[in-house]
Amino acid sequence: MKGRVGELARFIERLSTRFKETDMVSASRLEVSDRELTLLRTLVADGPMITKELGGRFRVPVSTMTGLVDRMEEKGLVRRAPGRRDRRSIELEATAAGKLALRQHTRGIEAIARGMLRALPARDQRTLITILRRVLGRKTSSRERRLG
User: Fold this and answer.
1) What is the C-alpha separation between 148 and 143, in angstroms, rounded?
2) pLDDT tens across 111-136, in order?
3) Which of 46, 44, 58, 38 shows the shortest CA–CA distance to 95?
4) Contact 84, 48 (CB under 8 A)
5) What does pTM read for this prediction?
């Protein structure tokens, strides 16, 4: 088992490096930072949120989140809008340009995934996906047990 752990660790490291390199190239080309991509991903997935809620999610002070949002707003990636539930609050939402930047970034990650899958026959592709789901499910379950 020890040898397999080391080999798996090396694979994870190499894959992480590949994804990080793709992230950096994509972010650089799109002129979007990793943090900006993460924030866009959250807004697109979960919908508009107030700055305080985003700061809490990412465990950063509201002042830090406000600076990030200001820069993203200048780039046209997000916009501030009156709150839907409470019009006194200001929510952040991804703009069409922000959603486009996120889609372009996602295409780069998907290109890596396609390359990985092309190297495998269909049966192995299904097996890989099944194993990764199981591993991710176990990680999520143990995290939920710790939090619960």
Assistant:
1) 9
2) 888 988 999 999 999 999 999 999 88
3) 44
4) yes
5) 0.70
Domains of the chain: 2-120 (1.10.10.10)
What is the per-residue pLDDT across 71-103, written as a single tens digit (0 to 9) for each? 999 999 999 998 877 777 889 999 999 999 999
Give the integer Cα–Cα distance in Å for 32 and 95: 14
